[in-house]
Amino acid sequence: MFTIKIYSSDNNLDYNNCIFSSSNSRPSKSLIDCELYKNFSKINTNIDILNEFSHINTQSKKKEYFLLKEIINTFKLNLLDTDNLSISYDNIIINEINEMNNRLVYNLIFCFDNDISIRNIVVNLLTLIKELQKNDCLLINFDNLFTYPSLELLVIIANLFNKVKIYYCKLIKENILYCLNYKNNQYITVFLKNVIKNWNKSSNIRQFGIFVDELILKKIKRHNNFIFNYYINLNKNFSNSTLEDKEYFFKNYIKKNSRIVNNNLNCNHEIKEFNLLNCHICCKCFDLFMIY
Known about the structure:
Elements: E1 2-4, E2 19-21, H1 34-41, H2 63-74, E3 91-98, E4 105-112, H3 118-131, E5 137-142, H4 148-158, E6 161-169, E7 174-182, H5 186-197, E8 204-207, H6 214-239, H7 243-257, E9 271-273, E10 279-282, E11 288-290
Parallel strand pairs: 4-5
Antiparallel strand pairs: 1-6, 2-8, 3-4, 5-7, 6-7, 9-10, 10-11
């Protein structure tokens, strides 16, 4: 986790400097280690087997419950009552907060989107600005920070708040922004309205046309490299394990997470090759077999 604080508002925002394109922005060399990114991009991070939180799928409580607990612990939300906090995807949830130490009363707003994209974040921001009041705090999920326009958008958001804390959440595999103490910036509001007005839905933004401080670039690069290294090492540790370890792991993992419950003794096995040397799996009961 790291923090961005803008000490002077950037008044050079001009929507005429925005550049749109039909293609997606490529990762910026100023924000990533190219070799790490190349290795990271080969990994399918959506596979549950590379997810240390995969057990949540078998829990009775929803993912939002665990996400909220992680947010409270990570950002150390020092609140009188956390039991009444709520979070829901694709909805704006406004929680009135009484802070424990000085008993300040403000709104803590959650805005988590299932379809996360730079454009959707801008659209959500324009809706949120209508709700935000001075000193309110905002929690949102954010696009990856590999491309320059995503970094520019982060800086724009930081100009709307006293400071922004950025945390990569392994549970949802996305960045979370904790934006503290809203300060109205009408200049940014007008800029964002003009951006959306001139943004064709079928296009992507290549740049917002703003300057980003070198210190922020370095922070983002360290943050991204941490993410790359995490998944590269996780994948490497699994790949380097012995066949016996893999067999044990898969047997326990798949049976634990599978919703199909069969008695193996009565299963008319349907065997197919698995992705491990000399290993086969039954498509019905998910038992593993070594073929010699």
